[in-house]
Amino acid sequence: MKIYAHRGYSAKYPENTLAAFQAAADLPIDGVEFDVHLTKDGQVVVIHDESINRTSNGVGYVKDMTLPELREFDYGSWFDEEFAGAEIPTLAEALEVFRATNLRVNIELKSDIFAYPGLEELVIQEVEALEMTDQVVISSFDHEAVARIARLAPNVENAALFVNTVLDVASYQEKIPAKALHVFLPSAVRQPVREAIEKGSIVRVWTVNEEEHAALLIGTGVEALFTDEPEKMLAFIKHT
Ligand code: G3P
Ligand code: CA
Prior knowledge:
Layout: E1 2-6, H1 18-25, E2 31-38, E3 44-46, H2 67-70, H3 91-99, E4 104-109, H4 119-129, E5 136-140, H5 143-152, E6 157-162, H6 169-175, E7 180-184, H7 185-188, H8 191-198, E8 202-206, H9 211-217, E9 224-227, H10 230-238
Parallel strand pairs: 1-2, 1-9, 2-4, 4-5, 5-6, 6-7, 7-8, 8-9
Antiparallel strand pairs: 2-3
This protein binds SN-glycerol-3-phosphate and calcium ion.
């Protein structure tokens, strides 16, 4: 089973920062996952929430601020003073960390309450400009966005995210169409996902931080897990 660092090495570094990405890139793991939003001035930036309130010393929505405005805030000290001064990364900066590595890069397109028209096109453009189309997986909980990725860039791997799965998920996947399913752990151990794996679906599971949980996935055909604790999961998988 492969290991993807979730939001970078987010157990030990502030999530979705270059420090968390570099720490992930330095490990013998298989991939990394991070989240993107769109700024007021049309820049794709890496952050989990649609507001900067939780993971910076600022307040406000990403969509209401330009990149220079977002750069006025500190995205590290909320986690630990050691990381004070960490900037919000752009998508291009995050991709650059992994460009010369063998890690797969899972870009999650966020669409919470506010929609980001044109986000899919911008992400594809940046991935193509860096010649990383074979290295990325683009996922979203918004399955219309997943379908748009399939239309815009059929050669890029796209993935549909699920909290709860649906019955006959393999047929649903085909309808989108999505090349992979990214599934919340409780759904990953249920029958519909098991059936999808039997039918050939690529399934990756989030977020797996405990050995007992990872153990449930061994032998199920799950391709990869996303974890905040990549070193812990590496040690666990090595001993199984
Ligand atoms: O992409 C898998 C996982 O990251 C989805 O949930 O909330 O951590 O972005 P969340
Ligand atoms: Ca995510």
